[in-house]
TrEMBL record:
Domain of life: Bacteria
Description of how the protein assembles with itself and partners: Associates exclusively with 100S ribosomes, which are dimers of 70S ribosomes.
Name of encoding gene: raiA
Coiled coil segments of this chain: none
Keyword Protease appears in the UniProt entry: no
Name of protein: Ribosome hibernation promoting factor
Length: 174
């Protein structure tokens, strides 16, 4: 990472340069490809008040340039706030790049997951017959005939229900 520290209307000391370079070094922890970082320090005096302005310009590969401007009465406070804001921007970009799925990576379907699982009981995707409401007795008969462990259906009041076989050979209803 190329770094540049410039003072406008202000003479930079080695202590200030070292402090700003330490702030730049803390930005490298996000593992982003930072091409260059530049700090422009200005001293302002308006209405008898002294103040300092810090402008950080960070060039990233494959991303637009990040520009952060911060003004404070104290130079070190201005540098700290500007570096914290830069960390926030870089952290958000890092999280976006590493944690979030891109649009090309879609959630796999049940069938795709079933095909990828080796050594596990076979997963068979099924369509649910939820379209017409059923009486509980009708669902019980359908479950007995099918030999399955459970049946999902809508009852006459349009509630989603689950009828299942228990281990004691009785049936349960959610």
């Amino acid at each position: 990472m190329n770094t540049s520290i410039v003072g406008k209307q202000f003479e930079l000391t080695e202590a200030i340069k070292g402090y700003i370079e330490g702030g730049f070094d803390s930005l490298s922890k996000y593992s982003l490809d930072i091409i260059s970082a530049r700090a422009v320090i200005t001293a302002d005096e308006k209405k008898g008040r002294k103040g300092f302005g810090v402008e950080l310009i960070i060039n990233l590969a494959h991303m637009d340039t990040v520009v952060i401007k911060q003004k404070e009465k104290d130079l070190y406070a201005a540098v700290d706030l500007a570096v914290e804001r830069a960390k926030k921007v870089l952290r958000r970009h890092h999280d976006k790049v590493t944690a979030h799925r891109t649009k090309t990576e879609e959630t796999p379907s049940v069938k795709e997951v079933a095909e990828k699982i080796d050594g596990v009981d076979e997963i068979v995707p099924m369509e649910l017959d939820l379209y017409k409401p059923m009486e509980i007795e009708e669902a019980l008969e359908k479950l007995k005939e099918s030999g399955r462990q459970f049946l999902v259906f809508n009852d006459q009041e349009a509630k989603l229900r689950v009828l299942y076989k228990r281990t004691d050979e009785k049936f349960g209803l959610y």
